[in-house]
Write a structure and sequence with these properties.
The protein has helices at about 5-10, 90-100, and strands spanning about 15-20, 25-30, 35-40, 45, 50, 55-60, 65-70, 75, 85. The strands form three sheets. The protein has a four-stranded mixed sheet with strand order 1-2-7-6, covered by helices on one side. The chain has one domain (about 5-100). It is built from two helices and nine strands; from the N terminus they run αβββββββββα. A hairpin with a 6-residue loop joins strand 8 (about 75) and strand 9 (about 85). The chain has about 100 residues and is α+β, with helices and mostly antiparallel strands. Bound molecules: zinc ion. The site of zinc ion (ZN) has 7 residues, from loops.
Length: about 100
């Protein structure tokens, strides 16, 4: 965990795990703090990690430096439905409009 970068990013429930610098871009690896997510089908909570799925989103710039968020939107598997589902990341939903073009 990167406490200073986590504080700087200031997204509730989100931690900066790591960072790298590529050319003039700062890439922050971020992940939700919670270890479980609620199944959108049945509402059951699952902590059974199915797989990690990484996305890139352009975010703010810090001191004129472009910052990319490398977001781990994890997939959990619901024991009840026996199907995987992606966790809800509130900040992605809110920013999707601005960041859609940059998602890969
Ligand atoms: Zn379910």
């Amino acid at each position: 965990m990167q406490p200073i970068l986590t504080e700087l990013l200031n997204l509730p429930g989100i931690e900066v795990e790591n960072y790298t610098k590529v050319a003039d871009r700062l890439i922050l690896e971020v992940e939700a703090k919670t270890t479980k997510a609620k199944c959108p089908r049945c509402g059951e909570e699952s902590n059974h990690l199915h797989q990690n799925r990484w996305y890139f989103a352009r975010d703010l710039s810090i001191s004129g430096q472009e910052v990319l968020l490398k977001v781990n939107r994890r997939q959990f598997k619901c024991k009840k439905c026996e199907k995987p589902f992606s966790e809800e990341l509130e900040f992605i939903g809110k920013r999707r409009k601005q960041t859609r073009l940059f998602w890969v």
